[in-house]
């Protein structure tokens, strides 16, 4: 792959990422928490950190960390319960700000999004000026800081937003992009997870510069269909557009238990409650799907999943529970007691569309 290969369109992409979003909201709303190490989540023995303030991060506290580990690292850590209704309301404020500058917005979560402003520079004249204006609006209207990355593609814009956190702005120009990507460890590349990074390290690939020395054909032998993407991002190339109509891929819910569970009957009962909650979420969004996945986290924190793909979309909670139970049964006898149980529905489509497909399938069978 040639390093000089041009982008099909020199886009202007922003990645806006709120700084320690949940924890910053808690510190904003409670002055007693400002400047102190804060974790959003459950502070008891079975709890998990959902988010950490920058004061807590200095001690190595991170999201998804068990609360007991977080407290060992930071004995003065203050836990506050999450308030998702508040977080969603602030997220709506932030997205209202985005919409003033461009209609091409791809949310990634409550607190981050890509914005394509290629054709929406207006009187600002530059992507950097718009990024500064958005950050200023967010601060004025929410009292919170955001970091921004500015570049010519999604991959580099997201890397850029991490560069000067918190409350920072970083720009990667087309001239800088290839060298910037080459200088980074592959473990920092968005799109390369921990398992893939370990596999690359075993092959002697540690940086973007190492990655670009590999022909696409050789990468494909190890990484399959992702090879072209990996080769591209190592050169600062990413052709993916900002997609404001990106469809949700899955809906899931999970429960961390107050005590480890080893009983098959208890886990079935817990799965029923989870299925009820998940189908209510699907109904609210008028979505269903064809693949049901059970997630189990054992008490040694090892995670296993089991999935069942159906020929027709799930029609209701009973079918969701039936498929989930069938997937769960494959894990018995249990390797260890269970700490967490989750259920996810993927291969999503609208419920009315699913009903039409089911009717067609029945007709075809007749």
UniProtKB/TrEMBL annotation:
It is found in: Cytoplasm. Binds 2 magnesium ions per subunit. GO terms for molecular function: DNA-directed DNA polymerase activity. Its cofactor is Mg(2+). Residues 13-193 form the UmuC domain. InterPro entries: DNA/RNA_pol_sf, DNA_pol_Y-fam_lit_finger_sf, DNA_pol_Y-fam_little_finger, DNA_polymerase-Y, DNApol_IV, Rev_trsase/Diguanyl_cyclase, UmuC. The active site is at residue 112. Keywords: Cytoplasm, DNA damage, DNA repair, DNA replication, DNA-binding, DNA-directed DNA polymerase, Magnesium, Metal-binding, Mutator protein, Nucleotidyltransferase, Transferase. Mg(2+) binds at residues 17, 111. Transmembrane segments: none annotated. Its EC number is 2.7.7.7. The record marks 22 as: Substrate discrimination. It catalyses: DNA(n) + a 2'-deoxyribonucleoside 5'-triphosphate = DNA(n+1) + diphosphate. It is an enzyme of class 2 (transferase). Monomer. Poorly processive, error-prone DNA polymerase involved in untargeted mutagenesis. Copies undamaged DNA at stalled replication forks, which arise in vivo from mismatched or misaligned primer ends. These misaligned primers can be extended by PolIV. Exhibits no 3'-5' exonuclease (proofreading) activity. May be involved in translesional synthesis, in conjunction with the beta clamp from PolIII. Belongs to the DNA polymerase type-Y family. PANTHER family: DNA POLYMERASE KAPPA, DNA REPAIR POLYMERASE UMUC / TRANSFERASE FAMILY MEMBER. This is DNA polymerase IV. It comes from Acetobacter musti.
